[in-house]
Amino acid sequence: MGKNEVSTLFSSDPDKYYRVSLFDRLGFKRNKCISCEKFFWSLVDKNTCPDHEAYNFIGNPPTNKRLDYIGAWKETEKYFQSHGHSITRRYPVVCRWRDDLYYTIASIVDFQRIMNNKVIFELPSNPLVVPQICLRFNDVENVGVSGRHYTSFCMIGQTCNADAPGGYWKDKCIDLDFGLLTNVLGIKPEEITFVEDIWIGAGAFGSSLEYFVRGLELGNAVFTEFEGDENNYRIMKNKIIDMGAGLERFSWITMGTPTSYDCSFGSVIKYLENSIGIQKDESFLSNYFKFVSRKFNMIEDDSSDKIIKLKKSIAHEMGVTFEHLQKIVSPYEAIYTIADHTRTLLFAISDGSLPSNVGGGYNLRILLRRVLSIIERFKWNIKIEDLIDTHVGYLKNMFPELEENKSEIYTILNLESERYESTRQRMNDIASTIRENGKQLNVDDLIRLYESDGITPDFLKEVNVITEIPSNFYVKLSELHNINQKPLYIPTIEGLEGLSPTRLLYYEDSSLREFDAQILKIKGNYVILDQTSFYPRGGGQEPDKGLIGDARVQEVIKQGDIVLHKVENLSSLSEGIMIKCKLDDARRESITKHHTATHILNSSARNTLGSWIWQNSAFKDVNYGRLDITHHSALNKEEVERIEKTANEIVMKNLDVNIKEYERGESEQKFSFRIYQGGVVPSNKVRIVNISNFDIEACGGTHVNRTGDIGLIKILKSERIQDGVVRLEFVAGQAAINHIKNQDRNVSFISQSLGSSKEKLTDSFKKHLDESEKLRTKIKILLRKTSPILAKSISHNSTQITPEGVKLYTIFDDELDEEFHIVVGEKSITLDPFLIYISLIPQGEGIRVIVFVGEAARKYGINAGKIAKIFSVNLGGSGGGDFKFGQGGGKFKDKIEEVLNYSEMYVKDTIKR
Ligand SMILES: [Zn+2]
Ligand SMILES: [Zn+2]
Fold first, then answer.
1. Which-ligand-closest: CA of 687?
2. CA of 589 to the centre of ligand 2 (A)
3. How many C-beta atoms surround the C-beta of residue 110 within 10 A?
4. Residue 40 Cα, ligand 1 centroid: separation in angstroms?
5. CA of 619 to the centre of ligand 2 (A)
6. In angstroms, rounded to a whole number, what is the distance separating the alpha carbons of residues 577 and 758?
7. pTM over 0.85
8. In 3D, which of 881, 806, 829 has the Cα closest to residue 850?
9. CA-CA distance, 444 to 470, in Å (whole number)?
């Protein structure tokens, strides 16, 4: 069965799947749409479903109340609370609890956890309502244009487990929603239509009833009833009600404004109108957007100018010119887009996501660049900071947490804006090249331009390189970026069925180094014990090593509940025997210290740099550790020192490291989603590692008992490894002491070589510097005195290459440096004006080219710069200069001989040109 078959199955038995008690009580009748054949329920006779209706509530709302965005939420909240629902605070828009999503895309996602490739539902209370901000980036180009599309919106999530205490099923759900529409919003029952639909999600599906008023879908009540797929399913033990309604639409239906944007951003629209200095032509816009509502879904054209076509046809029906329509509509589309995009940035950055070119962060960068481009295009005077401030001022009535992170949001947005401004010159150059070529850009070209040069199509529109943005640009781009990282490849060992889970001794007593165990099974080179203290590879922590009997353990992995030990030599082992096992103690100690140090460094970095710091990944080995953090820029020396200082203060405070298991829901509520630094925990019990409230993470690794056990943390290096990610390499414990010892040894070696003591090293180093400086001066004097003699011999040893007497001297010199050849070369051409002096000098990984041409030779058109260029190009590099002096270089050392052999030809080539 596919989606259509499920739909047919449900529709063929409406009494079972769709008929709720409300329909019978009030006399709702089931109709079939003559246009699209969908089934729907209404009190009045209708031929067509609401999909074909224009938004007649615009300018004429069907409610007895006018509710702005916050007002609509307050009424909804009060209503559900009085009907026994608890109100859950919104979850972060950055979906830390699911590996397969960057952002929270629906309210039900809050309560979904993936275990063994299966979605399970965990509700913090039953029933509940959550005002969940959802981020979706698949309709970016419709935002601001359609009147109803957003990149972020608030989904009112009415959720319950039907089979748990407090739960209810279809009848009560629809009763409640109907009550909300009629009693709270004051909509007449005959205005409401319920449309039959189905919903298929990851591993579960069910029927659903969408409810509409005057063509506008207000909500969708999904009855998740079956688990499995369409071909193989059973009724769920805990059926789920998942009703999602758009808060923006609740407000819109009561206000009847031209678009839902007009009533969903508080004073932001007014603020924008004021700073731009325009006034809304309310009746024109109302009229226009009523047309849009009817026609928007009907355009199936995928061409880049589909919006233009739509507008032209509307202009025609409204009896105005297209230009007149554009003049009124396009500034408002821009205002709406700016309002939407900045609100999305506000939520995403506040919840810890950074604009970048990777992962979900790319969406944020593109939104901000769109906003800046639009402002630039209209030459408006709008400050992003003021805009964010206006958003927060309004939204804090619903989401007070936004106020806390305001200054950090400014920091990130200002930094990103500056970055964008600084690349504009280069973007302008590229744009004018495209314009000169006159090439028509397709979607793939635009994607390449964004990927390689960060040029958004909005910018190209701004500078008139393209007229419209292809409607599938954002869809294609997001497909490209939604690829999730693949996990490290771990071979699957077959034939473990029937084995009981390994008892994990490392969790029971982390100090245990020797233990007895029974060998349950040997599979290839893998040994399975009934219990083990060997920590398996996982969460960036390297595995333990040691001995099982006298067999050396090379690798330890965990597959499901079973720990597998890979050993070198199996000869002394056999299934069933009891055996003594012993861990490499120093290795475990060192890895454990590096591991705990990653926790400390992560929180130290966050305290030092800002709230956007999250662990991106980590690696804990015996000799060093590595922590990758999410940060917008490379770190400077002071920042690294401050992080290291904070970390060592925590070490010295000798804080308690407390490890305790919690129910997953409880730990999330108690400690927030910050616990998921190392990614998602695939079990309903969560092991919380709490360093005296300085750092709290869900983690399955090995940790010290007190921070003082680490001894010392030393950061060796920091490096920006990709856009938005900075890597810290560090050593801790014995490895840190070894590192310092090594440095000390190096210092001793240097001081001995200088004939000094370590204490006086700086002084004697300075002395040596002075001495070598004096030597250099002496050499220069010597060179000046001897260069006339050298120049004379060079002139003698040169070859005449033209009848007029031009002479060529080439030399490859791996003993003397560039400075020498500059002095000697110049002297030689002064002495012999017919001379061309060319030297090739090895330098680092490459070769330097120095060319001088004497005054007489220059008269025959011989140019030092041209010669330097041709030599350098043949050496795989570049060069240039003027008639007298040329320089350059290349990297192909193996070409030196060839170049020297052809030098006469090269020189003559330059004259011909
Ligand atoms: Zn229809
Ligand atoms: Zn840990």
1. 2
2. 14
3. 25
4. 9
5. 11
6. 59
7. no
8. 881
9. 10
Centre of ligand 1 to C-alpha 34, Å, is 7
User: Which tokens hold the place of 507?
Assistant: 């969790």
Query: Residue 455 corresponds to which tokens in the numbers above?
Result: 């040029």
**Ligand 1 centroid – CA 549 distance (Å):** 74
Question: What is the Å distance from ligand 2's center to 859 Cα?
Answer: 75
Measured in Å, residue 48 CA sits from the centre of ligand 1 at 5
Tell me how far the alpha carbon of residue 600 lies from the centroid of ligand 2, in angstroms.
Answer: 10
| CB-based burial, 39-53: b 16+ in 10 Å, e otherwise | bbbbbeebeebbbbb
- Residue 70: pLDDT band with limits 50, 70, 90: very high
| Upper half-sphere CA count for residue 656 (Cβ side, 13 Å) | 5
How much is the pLDDT for 570?
87
Give the relative orientation of helices 443-453 and 406-437 as an angle to the nearest 10 degrees: 130
Tens digit of each residue's pLDDT (9 = 90 or more) over 256-279: 999 999 999 999 999 999 999 999
Distance 151 CA to ligand 1 centre (A): 27
Burial of 233-243, coded b for 16+ CB within 10 Å and e otherwise, reads beebebbbbbb
Starting at the edge strand found earlier in the chain, the sheet holding 39-42 runs 29-32, 39-42, 192-201, 204-213, 216-229, 232-246, 152-161, 128-135, 86-87
Cα 873 from Cα 878, distance rounded (Å) = 5
Distance separating alpha carbons of residues 688 and 52, to the nearest angstrom: 53
Distance 703 CA to ligand 2 centre (A): 6
What token pair was written down for 159?
């959720």
User: Across all residues in the chain, what is the average pLDDT?
Assistant: 90
Residue 485: per-residue pLDDT: 36
Q: What is the DSSP string of 577-624?
A: -EEEEEE-HHHHHHHHHHHHHHHHHHHHHHHHH-TT--EEEEEE-SS-
CA of 665 to the centre of ligand 2 (A): 20
Dist. CA 51 → ligand 1 center (Å): 5
Q: If you measure from the C-alpha of residue 2 to the centroid of ligand 1, how many angstroms do you get, rounded to a whole number? A: 21
Compute, in angstroms, the gap from residue 406 CA to the centroid of ligand 2.
Answer: 30
Residues 6+ apart with CB under 8 A from 171: 20, 21, 22
- The ligand whose atoms approach the alpha carbon of 691 most closely is 2
Q: Say if CB 241 and CB 171 are below 8 A apart.
A: no
- Helix axis angle, 637-652 to 585-609, nearest 10°: 120
What mean pLDDT comes out for the span 578-605? 96
> Crossing angle, helix 406-437 and helix 384-395, to 10 degrees?
130
Q: Are strands 835-843 and 807-812 parallel, antiparallel or unpaired?
A: parallel
